[in-house]
Amino acid sequence: MCMPPRPSEPQQRPPEVPAAPARVPEALRTAAAYAWRIIVVAAAVYSVFAVLGRFHEIGVAVFLGLVVTAVLRPAADLVARVLPRPLAVAVSLLATIAVVLGVLALVGEAVAGERTTLVREFRTGIERIENWLERPPFRVDPEALTDIQSRIGQWLSSHRSAVISEAVSGGRRLVEVLTVFALALFCSVFFIHSGDRQWAWFCGQLPTEARRRATVAGRAAWRTFTGYTHGILLVAVTNAILVGIALFALGVPLALPLALLEFFAAFVPLIGSPVALAVAAVVALATKGPLTAAVVVALIVVIGQIEGHLLHPLVMSWAVRLHPVVVALSVVGGAVAAGMVGAIAAVPLVAVLWSVRQALKPAEDRASDDDG
């Protein structure tokens, strides 16, 4: 008996296994994670600088107030041992203002006393420079030098209105500067008198878990800021004394004003002192000739070596150790962001941020950094 053929059973297909997604390299994952964090931080920094740009006068006034506080707080604490605290603050501030005004008056008197001699020496010096440029190896055409002088005179005559408007704008700027200084003085009075109580009140307004970290960060920041301020003040005074003595010994006019310029320029690390001494070299060239100017240029090198290898390492050891590259980049970045004020404030700001980071790091991380 024939059996009917059994229907063929459909063949079972194996289940389709979904293709595994392409694996993202771990390096790309890490780069992407850091990239969006960097974008967020950059946006936050840009927002902060945008806000500060709107109120930069207030920021400058607070910064100057902190500088005055760092300089005068020890003196006020010393005077407060024998006088009431408010009176000690007033005595310290008034004595400092009197000293500053006295120095400025002395500089103004020196400039006024040397004005006639200086004008004559500058005229003679300009003629000497022209004769020097006409001789080998420069061999500059005398008519070219005369043409330059005439062009300068024509430009001043044709742009007289622009020069006057710039002078008026400078007058308005002077009012703004005086306002900033007044606000800085006002802030410094309260910072010197009760700055520690103000910071304690601010920390008390924070959440409980953040108070200790804020206290530690504040102490580290203020210790670094005062150490840097005292150190850079020592550098400025030392440079000004050396420059003043050297220029006076060389007989260069305006030795006292140029020494004062060196004092203020020293607050811009690595860059300020060479610029101020270059101005002194130009004055020496115009009044005393190339030989004296060459001596002043040599003075630039000597003072630069003293500042770079002796004074600035001492300052950084008082505050926080920063690599010279970091200092240079901070100065240039601060100048690009906020001009001269940014160049002055950049290095102490970076030093403060670094010290706060070090203070808030866990103890084991700090120990590993020290061992490294």
Count of discrete structural domains: 2
Output the helix-strand order.
HHHHHHHHHHHH
Q: Please describe the biggest sheet, giving its number of strands, its sense, and whether it closes into a barrel.
A: none
- Using only C-alpha atoms, the radius of gyration works out to 32 Å
- Please identify the structural class as seen in this structure: mainly alpha
The percent range for strand residues is under 5%
What overall geometry do the principal axes of the alpha carbons give?
globular
State mean pLDDT (0 to 100 scale). 78
Q: N-to-C terminal Cα separation, in Å?
A: 95 Å
Number of helices: 12
Number of DSSP strand runs: 0
Helix content class: over 70%
Low-confidence stretches: none
